[in-house]
Structure formats: structure tokens, C-alpha cells
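Sample log: TraB/GumN family protein.
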Amino acid sequence: MKRILSAFVATLISIFSINAQELENSTLWKIEGNGLENPSYLFDTIHLTCDATLEDDVKRALDETSQIVLELDMDDPTMQTKLMSGIYLSEGESIKDYVSDDEYKAIDSLLTNQLGMPLKLMENVKPFFLSSSLYPKMLDCPMQSFELEFMKVAKEQNEDIKGLETVEDQLKVFDEIPLEDQYADLVRMAEDNLQYDKTSFAKMLDIYKKENITELLELMNDENNITVSEHQDILLDERNKNWISKITEYAKEQPTFFGVGAGHLAGKNGVINLLRNAGYTVTAVLE
């Protein structure tokens, strides 16, 4: 459960960006140069999907590297405890402070129908956790996760799983985004019973299959999602910049396979461009 919840946490944070440059259609990128003795690899994941099958080029990259670094260390035994510590609103606050009676009823209906759990039991849970609990319902298939596949590989190859961020780091991201905006997105989800989100997610999965990360970002730069469109500096840019020194440290330590959410790679402040600006050669693996 803690791994699935971690994927939820990562999902909303990790799939959006502003398109700033055209990149090759590839979800796998090789990192070389700038003093690296051996190449590392950067993979563009999608955290929840219908098919998390690892392609041959990804398997080769995993074989050529000796550690796996994801956004979070998903092997951390304290992860569930840390997540639960950040799930609730401030003492005395509830969803009723942010939504109207009609909006409350719409959200209650959504959660009851989709999760079998009335809003009454979750009135003091932060909106991000309410929204993320609904993500599997946007798939018309059993949920799969690349992160869980990477964890299987790490176990098979007796390798470490490490993280670019801590759970506290990711929770802080949403603490910096106004609750009013997060609740507005939750209300929108409730008003049409996830229909808009299901359609958008299906388009995203289709584009991801084509490995067109530029088109993916264009699709996801959606003003209907206020949390994303108004706060991309917090969700993406600042985090990407913080990751570069950590990616550098891990890659110089040993050949590393990095897996980060679709949306973090492309753009002016994307990981690919930032690594290139730092002196690395980052090329698409087109096999």
C-alpha cells in the first residue's frame, strides 16, 4: 500500500510542464561526459499506467547501471509513517472551510461512488490526498507502475533504490500551493464524475506510448487544472533545478538509472536541458 500511495504522491506532481523546446521522441536518454567514467541513463516514467512493460532498451540500460534512483526512495521502511504525518489539514480546519454545501455534496458523491467511502470520514484530509486516491479510477484497466517494475529489477540485481527527494520534500510542494486552488480542482473532478480527467488521462497514455514527451507536455499544460497551470514553478522548475546536483553526485558515484515522471525532462527548465547546461551530453536512445 505504501508503494502505491507513493506513486499517487508522485503522479500529480510529476506529469506536467511548459513546452520550451522540441526533443526527439524518446523516453530513455543517455547521460555522458563531464567527467563521468561510465554513462548513466534517464528514463521518463508515467507513474500509473495500463502497461508498465520494460522495453529492451530500458532493460539494457538497467543492466548497464548498478543503482536505481527514483524521485523517492520507495524502499524506505518509514515512508508510510512519513506520508501519514502529512495527510491532514491544520488542526481545526476541514473541507467545509473551502467549499460550498453543493460542492461538498458533489465531492461526497464522487468519493462514495468511486471509493466506497463518504467524505464525512475524510473532511480533514488534504485535497491532494483526496484527488490522488482517485487516480486509479481514471484508468480503464488494472493499474500498473514503472516504479514497481524498477523495484523488482533492483531486487533481482541486488541493487539499491535511492531517491532524489524525501517524502517531506514532496509533501512540502503541495503545502506551498494554495488550498483554494487544490479544492477548486477537486470540485471540478466531482462535478462531472471524473469524465474530463479520464479523457485527458487516456490522451496522455496514448501520447506516452508514442514517446513524444513534447506533445505530452503540450497536452498537460491545461488551464482547467489550476494546481498545475498556476504553480508549475513549484511543481517542476524548482525541483528540477534541485535535482541536478543530486543526479551529478549519483552518476559520478556509479553508473545510475534515473527514473523521473514525464514532464520533468523537457523544457527550458527540464532535466535534459539543465544537465546539458551543466556540461553533460544527454542524447536520446532511439533503438
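Observation: The first helix runs from residue 2 to 14.
Observation: Residues 86 and 171 are 7 Å apart (CA to CA).
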